[in-house]
Amino acid sequence: MTTQITVRIPDDLVAFVDALVAAGAVTSRADAVARALARERRRQTALEDVAILRRVGGDADLDALAEHAAAHPLDLGD
């Protein structure tokens, strides 16, 4: 199921999305926005996982991963 929404996006981002569509990287503007939001959801989930690992501890390899991820936050150009 999908829901149609209306959003305002800066012109430079619209041009970027349109270039993605023209290049065939995505099938439509909606596809580009959906992919970006799905990526952000995965990023947020990963950050939550890191916070849990830091709080409860665990396997030494995961501790190192959590420390690394916490020290290197992802910047997607928000």
From TrEMBL:
<dbReference type="GO" id="GO:0006355">
    <property type="term" value="P:regulation of DNA-templated transcription"/>
</dbReference>
<dbReference type="InterPro" id="IPR010985">
    <property type="entry name" value="Ribbon_hlx_hlx"/>
</dbReference>
<protein>
    <submittedName>
        <fullName>Antitoxin</fullName>
    </submittedName>
</protein>
